[in-house]
Predict the structure of CS domain-containing protein.
Amino acid sequence: MSAESLIAEANALFVEEEYQSAMAKFNQAIELDDKNSSYFTHRSFCHYKLENYTAAMADAKKAVELDPKNAKAFLRKGMAAFSLEEYESAKEAFEKSQELAPAAATKTWIRKCEAELETEKDDDESSEDIAPKKAQAAPKAMEEDGPPPLEPDTKLPPKAQTPAPSPSPSPQPAPVPAAQPAPQPAKPDSKPAPKSAVRYEWYQTETHVTVTIYLKNVKKEDASVQFQDQHLDVAIQNVPVTNEYRLNVELSDKIITGECVYTVLGTKIEIKLKKSKPAKWPALENTGTQVRSWDVVADQKTHKGLAYPSSSKHGAKDWDALGREQPEEKLEGDAALNKVFADIYKGASDEQRKAMLKSFQESGGTVLSTNWDEVGKGEVKGQPPKGMEMHNWKEIHE
């Protein structure tokens, strides 16, 4: 089977979200032809869907190396870098993609990078504000306590002669003790307790809830995440200022604990909770409000994008709002053809899919049929567009 045929099969499997099977086909195609930039671009996106972000980055870089004008390869490189939290690199890649092939979707990615970089900048400034205050605490305490008392003189005076008895003084009236001021109540400490710079965000899909805690340089051994039927308990040790961060909440609905996972990354901890049923949670923490069926929410006429509640001082991020009014990207050439093929393939039966693959491959991409009764009878002849001739590639090279 040719590399092109394998890529066509891989793309069809990709549309069906069968990413592992698609990956196997992409690997076979690249073994046959490792000089095609678009093949590495396709496989990079498959790695991205499988959350193999490092591999996705490697394939995107290879695609760019093979074709420095491959805008899609720069787009995939940016997406991989964004997932690896390399926001500067991601922004550069998206800007290059936008320069080669302007697209609304790429603009949205650039704005996402700018938002993340701005958040990182604000977090760094918050950390710098906290450090000087802590350093000033010791000298201030010294001033309040006053200087240390002087050491008493331990030397004995020289032996003196016995003095002559002096005349008894006339009796003096006993002094009246001065009135002591009433004790003042202790003033409460007006300084607020130091606040933690840690913040978190959460969002949900039909099947999962994702909680992201933004905290840099956390060691895996310092993070403890416990899942219970309707409870999430997060404890992180060695946190700046407060020493420990705790997120302990009763969740809005039950979760499947065996399918919940968490990942400790360089700048955050990402927790993925598996919902026990498709439902729209009104909040992360249980407020007594009943959860609604996801189907009911999806069927409502007024549809809103995914909400991203946040404890950030900047408020929640709504990524959908960044591109809500952007027009859909218009596909051209091979990309448009692949989309047509994929759309038809997605809704076809097994027999129709078999007919599509056979007709498309045997005709050199000039015939696409879903009629297996007709296609299965024999080889499908190519039908070139009007005014063009059909040539077999073997004939050309003989």
